[in-house]
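hi! just following up on the protien thing from before. the input was this:
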Amino acid sequence: MGEVVASIELERPPEEAFAVVADPAQRRRLLPDNFQDVRVVSETERGPGTVMRFTIAMPGSEHESEVAVTAWEPPRSLTEAARGDSPYTMRWTFAPRDGGSSVTVRMTYTSTGSVLHRLVERWFGRRALEQSLMVELLRLKAIVEG
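and the predicted 3d structure came back as:
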């Protein structure tokens, strides 16, 4: 199992950061530009049980993904779990810090394929995942501090 972690400090309280991440309309604004056609596909539009579907465009291919909110502890944390053949979990945590907050995203995922595939994923895929998480965190910072 692989893991990638990214964090950022915000000058706003955890409640404000949580509200942005927890709102699917706002969450779309956080995602990297290669996430396309992001939409809620569940009857639940916010909170536990919310399911979002999107397409991740990569050079030469596209990957359909579906993510469900599986844990919800406002304003401390929320967890999203991807469904399908590329499972991963993203746990967002929001903690008070010096009049603002610290936001951490921890992504865990399962590596599949041959040993060579796992080695390539470990060295190159991990960096891409870290960059993707930082895009979301920097966009979150811009929205809440904007």
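Strands lie at 2-10, 35-40, 51-58, 61-73, 77-83, 88-97, 100-109.
The chain has one domain: 2-145.
cheers
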